[in-house]
UniProtKB/TrEMBL annotation:
The keyword GTP-binding does not apply. CDD domains: AdoMet_MTases (cd02440). GO terms for biological process: methylation. Keywords: Methyltransferase, Transferase, Ubiquinone. The lineage of its organism: Bacteria, Pseudomonadati, Thermodesulfobacteriota, Desulfobulbia, Desulfobulbales. This is Ubiquinone/menaquinone biosynthesis C-methylase UbiE. It comes from the Bacteria. The keyword Transcription regulation does not apply. Residues 36-131 form the Methyltransferase type domain. GO terms for molecular function: S-adenosylmethionine-dependent methyltransferase activity.
Amino acid sequence: MESEGESHRLDVKIDAETITRQAIWAGIKPGMRVADLGCGSGKVTSLLYDLVQPGGTVVGVDGSAARLVYAQEKYGRKGIDFIQGNLTQPLGHLGQFDFIWVRFVLEYYLSKSSSMVKNFAGCLKPGGIICLVDLDHNPFNYYGIPERLEHTLKKIMKEVEEKTDFDPFIGRKLYSIVYDLGFEDIDVRVENYRVTFGKAKELEVFNMLKKIEIVPEKIKFQFDDYQGGYEEFYQETLAFLSDPRRFAYTPLILCRGSKGAKV
């Protein structure tokens, strides 16, 4: 999804009330030192910072220099550090944390998700908390979708898995990853990330159209089922998203655990 407007897309889709509620459920508390791994636009980092006051600090880490510039300009303040880093590499230089938040990161690392969480755990203090947050079965849960469009979207996602290491089913794997690594006091929460019906919401249409503008081009997808190529596919997608009869939903799974002696 890397593009010129990606920082803005990530920023506008975040619901502050939801993030706050989820982080409190996970166990965030005032005074903690927190890592927001894959911090994106920095908005979530800022929300986590508010939750650890008084006395807490947050480090936001992301691989994109452009997103970090956006984050620093919009959300930078004393007590928040934004650092560029490769989340597939050791992170010991960041120090130790009481709480690590990993939201919408592991879906991009089908072959590396378990080893990455093990790596993150190395930055946790004994008893520290890690919270993994990701989607599941994304974006296949539609009803009322034209057969040709559904077939094409599934083909796109299959190629995305093969060519980019994307995992649309990472949500259901989070518990097992945390369990296998020896975390304790594990808890899981399943929520609706998005439920779409009736009149189209402008933000939802914007977010989906951004994906179909960027992803097929990145993987050089061939629209064999569309005589008019990408443009015909785009128009059919727009018509489906705007249809008040269509129904779509995406599950969100959160998994939290505490670092025990075996981790």
